[in-house]
Records
---
Amino acid sequence: MRWTLHGETCVYRSPWMNLCLADVELPDGRRFDHHLVRVRDAAGVVALDGEGRALLIWRHRFITGRWGWEIPGGRVEEGEEPEHSAARELLEETGWRPGPLRHLFDVPASPGLHDGVHHLYAADGAERVGDPTDVEAERIEWVPLASVPALAARGEIGSSSSLAALLYLLGGNGR
């Protein structure tokens, strides 16, 4: 059943996001304002070391008040290709330059709330070139892919996009 969009009004705008009200109608005729957030796409990368490990960051997210492992990633800047964003974010957040990138898949992270898409990549290897320039992580470590299910079960994977990419690779996909 498809909803009908009659219009959209933004009630707040910023460089990070726009908060909007959409005038929608359900198939049964009910009509109401639905809140939605318009955000830039994001890109992330799982750097693999050839020994079954992924380069992850351990960070705190103040919004949820939780710590967790994440793949490095961030916003796709205006005019930037997602692949370049993923490589840039890995370098900025870890100090490691990725090897060749492979596109894994794109995830509409929370389509009932916002329109942002996470573009996910894998890198075959990475080279340490210095310290992170965008310090977001308390730790940066090569974490065995085999440990991902246990980390997820303990709530130690910090984002659904990170978990999706890691499990996808653990399952032998994207190689």
---
Amino acid sequence: MRLVQPSLRIRMALLYGALVLLIGAALLATSYILLDRALSQIALPPNPGDVTIIDNATGGRTTWNPSDARSLMRTGALHYLLRDGLLYFGVIVLIGSIGGYLLARQALRPVARITATAKQLSTKTLSERIGLGGPDDELRELADTFDEMLARLDAAFGSQRRFVANASHELRTPLAVIQTELDVTLSDPNAPPDELRRMGEVVREATNRAQKLVDALLALARLQGREGQTLELTEVVTLNELIPNATAAAKAEAVTRGITITAEGEPVRTTGDPRLLERVIGNLVENAVRYNVPGGWVQIKTESVGAGANRTSRIVVLNSGVPVQPEEVEGLFDAFRRGGRARTGQRGAGLGLSIVRAIVDAHNGSIAASANPAGGLRVEISFPASADSEASLIS
């Protein structure tokens, strides 16, 4: 199999040898032609006649014509060139092939390092890097690109492991509550009806929590699985009209805690799925209420920014609350993060902002968050404005 399919190193050596062979053959042929022409142009005396050569030792006589000298010199020189030239030519081709093999091995050494690193990789060794170094050439660029890919894979697998661990933890909590309540209540054969009812309510609450977590996980998986695909439903949506229904779920908790929710701003439109866009606003408001302080406030603002093809529809949700460190803001959009803390005992699965970011990405929008100096957050979402937004403003 090695002879049928030679390695790249051998193929490169053969190519180097073939190149030397072609160049050598061309040089030999050129030398032969030039030497032949040079000897053919040697000037001779006009009509020299025959010359008699006398051997002093024997007294013999030989007749020789100088005109034959050019033919004899030409024949001898060309014969010497072909005989010895071919010998040297073979030596040069052999040296070129060996040198080509050594050069190929040296040139392909970085590729061998990349191959060795790739063979050692697994889900537990994604931290391995090539770290080629050396001159900034194509092989260095290939190795750096491979290292960057490994870094992305390492981050992706790490995020997946954390996601699975956090999801398992979140699901274990309501299941543990259900199991405990059932064991405690059923261990008493004479449990009164009030105790059974209390157990049922606790189990129902834990079941609802698990159901909401599963729904959130499925929603996030669907959104992430549709990355790069078009939305199932696309229509022109006026974002202001979604606010009342989006905030309805959070109003009961807001009233209980004395939190005021207000909305203001001009009508803004975008193109997308109204169900998903309503969920964006609802999740942001629920998050703003849940992590607020008693007697706090939540503000929803809508505005249009830019003009023409660069026009965007913006939603801004601001809320009061406890101070948030600036370095913790970006982590709030990770799954199972609550107020910068992973997997606390507070309500909610910590997937709200992760789902928001996935929906925004699906609508080709952008999201940014910042900490308010007095406490709380400012979340700003921008969507591409619909084509009729500019026309409605002009009319």
